[in-house]
Amino acid sequence: MNTQKPTILTAPRISSNLHIGNYFGAILPMIDMAKHRSDDYQINMFIADLHGLTTPIDYSNVQPLVWSYLRTFVAAGFPLDLPNVYLYRQSHIPAHSELTWILDCFTGMGEMARMTQFKDKSAKLSEDRISVGLFNYPVLMAADILLYNTRYVPVGDDQTQHIEFTRDIGERINNRFGEIFTIPETAKAQHEFFGKDQGLRIRDLQDPTKKMSKSDETGKGVIFLNDTPEQARKKIMTAATDSRGVIHYDYATQPGVSNLIEMHALLSGQTVAAVAAEWEGKSSYGELKTAVAASVSDFLTDFQHNLTTIDDALLKQKLASGEAAMRTLANATLLRVQTAVGLR
Ligand code: TRP
After folding, report:
1. What are 224-241's pLDDT values in tens digits?
2. In Å, how far from its chain's centre is CA 30?
3. 153 lines ligand 1 (CB under 6 A)
4. Across the chain, what does the average pLDDT equal?
């Protein structure tokens, strides 16, 4: 079919400001992959801006969000100089939308209605705000993946069903028309490929039984990358813990304390085992919080400084070349589908 290297592809959906959970759980692993796997794989990292429109959003904030996500990648170390690493915006490659329409016509209503993310998200919206876009969100995601000969898609557990759907719809088209798409690996094979670190999750500071999430309304449990170091420090100092009075790294019995240990390790570049050993058996939660607060504040100070040093011209160049190359690749896949279904 072609001689292109298999692709590893991922994207954040734009929604609200990024937080340290996104940073350590999604952005850093992807950057690591871009740096270390680009000899053997084509690396695609894009901004899912079209997916950002599926739920209510402030439209005047879309461009600022897109650019803040892009700059965050660069400040976090995304390599702008590797030839096999592509950065692009979903809406700048028209083939995503065009393939979505065709795949829509091969997708059953029932299939989409069963998606747990759709059920969860639509349950939180009033009826007149549930869009058809939210309903067929997984079809657009399948198009994102199938356009680029993708083998691996590093995503969290909440996206497993979407990966399975991508395989289903891809196979449906291949069975009917011949080898049109590369089918991505199963979710299980993805986990094996990316290793145990995937799914590492910083928890919410106020409710450490759930992961840190962009949709937390109060923002108290979440450390955003654009919080001032002082705001972040306060959030750590008021984090929920427990009344045991002895520090022990165990999420089952002490989720708050364990989350603080985990964060401290990530923020200060130490292993969790080393930090856990250092604090094991101590009794002052206040001291632990003070230490974590200092590492959060140092981290944000450095990160926010990095943001000010970004070369926007270089970033724009990288986007322009990535988008041009991906348009060509995506259009080639789209043309195979258009031809198969009789449109060409
Ligand atoms: N649905 C993904 C999320 O919310 C974002 C996304 C859109 C994506 N298209 C993708 C992820 C393609 C991987 C591949 O996290």
Report:
1. 999 999 999 999 999 999
2. 9
3. yes
4. 94
- Is the C-beta atom of 145 inside 6 A of ligand 1? yes
By alpha-carbon position, which residue is closest to atom 14 of ligand 1?
10
More confident residue, 261 or 217: 261
The correct CATH number of 7-195+312-340 out of 3.90.180.10, 3.40.50.620, 3.40.190.10, 3.30.1660.10 is 3.40.50.620
Average pLDDT, stretch 38-66?
97
Question: Catalytic annotation on 289?
Answer: no
pLDDT above 90 (res 38): yes
Taking the model in full, what pTM does it have? 0.92
Residue 121 among the catalytic residues: yes
Residue 145 confidence (pLDDT) = 98
pLDDT at residue 106 above 50?
yes
Task: Domain ranges for the chain, please list them.
Answer: 7-195+312-340, 229-307
The CATH number of domain 229-307 is 1.20.1290.10: no
